[in-house]
Write a structure and sequence with these properties.
about 675 residues; alpha+beta; five-stranded antiparallel sheet; 22 strands; about 25% strand; elongated
Amino acid sequence: MKLPTRCTNAPILRKFIYITFIATGLGVLFAILLSTLIQWFMLREELVKNVAAQASVIASISSRELLSNHRAEAEKTVKALANIDSIEFAGIFDKEGRNFALYVRPGVTMPSHRHQSIKSEYHIHTATYIEIVIPVLFKQQQIGMIHVRSSMAPVYEKLEWNIFIAVVAATVAFVTAVLMIFSLLPAITDPLQYLITLMKRVSRENDFTLRSTLHRSDEIGTLSEGFNAMLEQIQTRDVQLARHQKNLEREVAQRTAKLTEAQRIAHLGNWEWDILNNTLEWSDEIYRIFGFTPQQFGATYESFLQAVHPEDREAVKINVRESLEQGRPYTIDHRILLPDGKVRYVHEQGEISRNQEGHPIVMQGTVQDITESKQAEMALKDANEQLSVLLNSLPIAVYRCQAQGEFPVIYMSQNVTSFTAYDPKDFIETTDLWFTHIHPDDLSKVSEGMDILFDKGVHTYEYRWCKADGTYIWIQDSLKLIHDADERPDYMVGMWQDITERKHIEEEISLMATTDALTGIANRRELNRQLEKEIERSKRYGVPLSLIMYDIDYFKRVNDTFGHDAGDRVLQTLTALVKSNIRTVDIVARWGGEEFMILMPQSDAEAAGDAAEKLRQKIVEHPFEQVGNLTVSFGVTAFTSDDDLNVFLKRVDDALYHAKENGRNRVEILL
């Protein structure tokens, strides 16, 4: 049974009062009810015995009058019962049930009875009276019967008096119990209140040296001892933690000093960028690299960009943005401009930490001064470029390798350096350089290509290959297998061509074909493709699939009032707001104009409706720049096994139409 909150949250004193009143009251009430019931039965049985005894006396006397047919004497015998107040009537009847002698108390109506021959005495009990019928026998033969009825009034009179006495006694017992409880309560609640006050003081002052002064042998004393023991343990722990913290601080200071010195020697510093709060922490060495006094100012992303060479600033911004958006590690070499006008080269790299929703929150990384190596690299690069122009006129690298084992390179043309940054001798000296630098995802493709080469003798395939700087380029590799005089594979000649730019163009074309240029989300063509795929999956596996269609209410007014540029910004802001409030598996696409779709795999209509309502509320609460608050209407439907693509799209369009017709700024679900 669950108690009311008012009882569970009540103070202990009030709980004891509740317990006392309820337990004692119920006990007294039960005792009174049980006592009353028992007395009622006992008093009734006593009355039955008395009336039966009187009736038996009359029966023994009346046998003579019945035999002698002496009615007058029988009348006297019956009227003798008038001295008994409870007797309402009494009668003597012959064996045929005819009235022989009768007494009826004045004011009492004699009920009609039909008396028949009886074999033994029997009683009739009701809540108001008792009737007793006794046979009159002579020589074991019934010659008549006695019928007596008594009122239950004497029983109730005695019962009322007994109840009064029981109530008085129970009241005295109840009051006594309450007084005893109230006299004992302070002995329980006062120590508890003392402990509670002490606990609050410990929590408020954070002082674990306090102790309880209660010394008792009951449960409260045990609680007091346990509380003191807990405070003792916490105090001991705090002392140990303080000592440990001092040791840690000393060790951290020592290690920080060593790390700072190591960074100074290596010209390498570390940084951490809190993206949400736009705070940037630099180690001392980074300040020195950038030409500042260590910890001279609080660094920010903007102050960092100001130190970047103006010609490299845009490239750094793009690299940072791509790292945040694409989730790839941040790595770049660029120039910085020192306060005195000098230029340095630095290598930066970093990694991003994201929250559960996939949003970037922190980026950590390092900065290394590579001015000397960069200058040497640039000088070497100039020399290589001049040599490459002189010795190589083809934009390809030609090579020859053996046709056994790991296919060790025998010859590699100089042009390979221009797009791999590896020297030709690296391929010759490191026999597995080519194989170990193939992108892991392309190894199976390369293996299949080699099988085709050995089968057909020629083959051309494309794969990604890791350059010396750790980045991947796309290589088109064309090979021809050369056999020896015995028609056994001898060696291979091939040609490498860097097709990275072509691949990027292909990827951009593919992206343009599937992405809306304004919002960056899927376009109508891509959504149709995804719809067909998800419909097929829903039909095959029976998983739910829902579709949401929405558009901005009165969007034409936005364009007419604020201009199309403002309208475009509204669409972009709306898209960002929707993407941040749907699942990663959901696909949002621009259907046309201000109409959008959300494809929700593995979601039924109810879940899609809840998602649409959440989006509707988010949009209503969001103030759009220059425009203010806007509303959006939503149509929702779920795919059924009888649907095809056109039926599915028609139903969600109808749902949106209903939302518009029913007042806009609402969600309509149509099944």
